[in-house]
């Protein structure tokens, strides 16, 4: 299999397990269909898979051929469009409830489509190139300075153009910024040089490549939603290490059109998610309107030191 396709298939498998655990039936249904479609399309026909005189292989053992990103994209587009089409049929028949369910499922597939291949990278490159970078560190971070260690390794995940990573480096932490966008990484490097601070910058698609290796004494997710990656970061904390994350919730739509729903946390979702994380202490977990007029979930957890 093509590297990206392998990572994508693995990601869907991980998300399927998570959705099952969370009893998120709708997501489970979509992910099962997608995984099955990818597996079927990638399976090598029996006559070319090996010696036909040999016993048939189990479903998980069949040889697979390489799948290109374009093939995966076509599969996802077909799935999404089928659900949208079925939603229209239901709506015409006056079945708005079914139509709504199908549109929500189509949105799940659409979110995966947005992150496939270079789609997310291209879109974020354009956004970062078109707007002037924010330079002030987020108050969510600076207000919690006292919770952060003054030395060790920090990760600013999906750190954009570097405003928060530069603050973390100045705080005394050996800081790495990762972002999917080449343009964000380039601007972060320039900003760090201008600020005279050392920063490691890595272009990385967190959804498909995961976190950079190693243990972290501090991890920040400021406005990047991927609970699978947040969870992995909580596991990658060094003993005593702190994870800070904040993200608008769906209630933000009551006052603002953006961020779009794909980037919003369902209310209460974070509480359920964190309940599953092991070896951590929850220092802060709130959901509220904040003074910047956003409805935001805010999380701080610390990894407990091993029992002595
Ligand atoms: C709303 S911006 C927040 C940037 C930064 N954390 C801040 O607060 O200034 C979201 C960032 O996530 C990055 N991003 C989006 N998808 C990503 C992915 N799959 N992997 C890594 N970074 C991603 C974008 O390039 C963008 O810089």
What does this structure look like?
With 308 residues, the protein is an alpha/beta fold. It folds into two domains: 3-117, Orthogonal Bundle (Hypothetical Protein Yqey, Chain: A, domain1), CATH 1.10.1510; 139-303, Rossmann fold (3-Layer(aba) Sandwich), CATH 3.40.50.150. The chain is 44% helix and 17% strand. The chain contains eleven helices and seven strands. It has a seven-stranded mixed beta sheet with strand order 3-2-1-4-5-7-6. Helix 3 (69-92) runs antiparallel to helix 4. The radius of gyration is 21 Å and the shape is globular. The termini are far apart. Bound molecules: S-adenosylmethionine. S-adenosylmethionine binds at residues 115, 120, 124, 134, 138, 158-160, 163-164, 179-181, 184, 205-207, 222-224.
Features:
308 residues, alpha/beta, Rossmann fold, 2 domains, 11 helices, 7 strands, binds S-adenosylmethionine
Spatial order of strands in the largest sheet: 3-2-1-4-5-7-6
CATH topology of the largest domain: Rossmann fold
Oligomeric status: single chain
Per CATH, the superfamily of the largest domain is Vaccinia Virus protein VP39
- Approximate helicity band: 40-55%
Q: CATH class of the largest domain, anyone?
A: Alpha Beta
Tell me the number of helical segments per DSSP (H or I, 4 or more residues long): 11
Task: Let me know the number of strands.
Answer: 7
Q: Please identify, by name, the CATH architecture of the largest domain.
A: 3-Layer(aba) Sandwich
Order of helices and strands: HHHHHHEHEHEHEHEHEE
User: What's the main sheet like?
Assistant: 7 strands, mixed
The pLDDT mean sits at 89
Strand fraction equals: 15-25%
Q: Low-confidence runs (pLDDT<50, min 5 residues)?
A: 48-61
Which molecules are bound besides the chains? S-adenosylmethionine
Cα-based radius of gyration, to the nearest Å: 21 Å
Spatial gap, N to C terminus: 45 Å
């Amino acid at each position: 299999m093509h590297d990206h396709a392998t990572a994508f298939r693995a990601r869907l498998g991980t998300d399927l397990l998570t959705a099952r655990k969370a009893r998120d039936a709708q997501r489970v249904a979509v992910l099962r269909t997608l995984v099955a479609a990818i597996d079927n399309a990638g399976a090598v026909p029996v006559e070319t898979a090996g010696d036909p005189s040999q016993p048939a292989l189990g479903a998980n053992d069949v040889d697979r051929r390489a799948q290109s990103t374009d093939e995966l994209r076509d599969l996802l587009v077909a799935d999404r469009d089928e659900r949208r089409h079925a939603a229209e049929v239901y709506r015409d028949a006056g079945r708005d409830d079914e139509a709504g369910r199908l549109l929500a499922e189509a949105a799940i597939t659409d979110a995966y489509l947005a992150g496939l291949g270079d789609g997310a990278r291209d879109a974020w490159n354009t956004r970062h190139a078109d707007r002037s970078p924010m330079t002030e560190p987020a108050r969510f971070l600076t207000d919690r300075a006292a919770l952060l260690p003054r030395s060790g390794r920090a990760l600013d995940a999906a750190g954009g153009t570097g405003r928060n990573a530069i603050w973390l480096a100045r705080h005394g932490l050996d800081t790495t910024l990762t972002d999917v966008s080449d343009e964000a990484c380039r601007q972060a490097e320039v900003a760090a040089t201008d600020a005279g601070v050392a920063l490691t910058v890595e272009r990385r698609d967190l959804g498909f490549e995961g976190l950079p290796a190693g243990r972290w004494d501090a991890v920040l997710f400021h406005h990047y939603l991927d609970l699978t990656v947040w969870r992995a970061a909580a596991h990658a904390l060094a003993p005593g290490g702190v994870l800070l994350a904040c993200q608008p919730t769906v209630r933000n739509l009551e006052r603002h059109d953006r961020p779009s729903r794909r980037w919003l946390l369902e209310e209460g979702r974070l509480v359920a998610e964190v309940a599953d994380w092991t070896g951590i202490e929850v220092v802060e977990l709130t959901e509220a309107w904040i003074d910047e007029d956003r409805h935001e979930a805010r999380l701080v957890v610390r990894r407990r030191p091993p029992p002595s």
